[in-house]
Automatic annotation (TrEMBL):
This is Cell survival pathways protein. The keyword Cytoplasm applies. GO terms for cellular component: cytoplasm. Pfam families: Svf1, Svf1_C. Its main location: cytoplasm.
Amino acid sequence: MLKWAQGALANVAGTAEPEYGAEAIVTVHQHSAADPNKPDYTELSSKDLAWAQAKGTNVETQVFYIATEEGPFAMAQVIYSVVVPGVKTTAQFNMKLFDPKKPQDKFWSSVPLTNYTFHNDGTSFYADNVALILSEDGGSYKIKSQADPKAHCNISFTRLSPGFMAGKDGKSTYGTDQTKPWGTMRHLFWPRCKVEGIFVINDTQVKVDGMGLFIHALQDMKPHHAAAKWNFANFQGPTTSAIMMEFTTPPSYGNTKCAVGGLAKDSGIIAGTLDNTAEHVKAENDPEANWPEPKEVKFTWKGKDKEGKDVVGVIEKTWAPRMDRVDVMGEVPDFVKKIASAAAGTRPYIYQYYEPATLKIKVGDQETTEEGVIFSESTFIS
């Protein structure tokens, strides 16, 4: 079958794509290198935070991660997805709460939303019993939900350091004709936020004040075609935050790796980094999911600060028993099940960890360390 016909079938049915090769993806790293100004990152404006509301099959999400002062990890998320363009669009609200002192009591809620819409030039999201509202000054979000009768939240995220995206526009683009790419991957970050608010789980109120990370992500194509594996690191310390999002494409795009991230301190950005690695130093086969579960990891950030000094950040960690292993097919909304079930070889699992960690940062000749907590995910899709 001709490649264009194979591609058309894959687009409609969700089947595996033909092997276009690594030349059919231009990562944000490559876009940045080709730019005359070669920007490692660009600070965000409110306009950048508008929901894309892409028309083709896509998944778009806003996620709010919280390292609470009391010890638990918390998360709130809206997922907006076009499953079949012009036919099926869905939205979902997710909440998670995990207390390392009571690992058996972890809580997860995922509920479909109705009557969803966008306001304020697309920067705020509303649905029945849910609101994600960006402030007029673009510096904070209010997140409110009573979508699940057993799980409410009312929280605020106030940005402490500037938000940023990798390169000029944060985009990695897919397609054999890059003047008209057929897919896009994009991540926007608020790396360091002050969080205030509560979760109410089964009528029990949980204070979730602490430090947070906000991510707005867009996979403007079928998600299992965009990436086969993911690694994610979110470190929050008293003065410093470090984030990394790495994905590896399927063989259809040459098993290409792309890792974006950055380091923030107090009210500033140390560096937005494009030279990042997420290594599974040691892994063991998980017989239930049949994936190599990471046991020892190393995250490395490399870039330059605003003065041109070399910046290197490192976290090395031997994981204790995981926080969770999420069977995506068993827990996510129907739209993901329908997309994933149509793809040969798609078997998504997410391994999650939340533990104390040490971040080492070297700027020029000066090296510092900071103790904090890390939330990390390793995701295997296909």
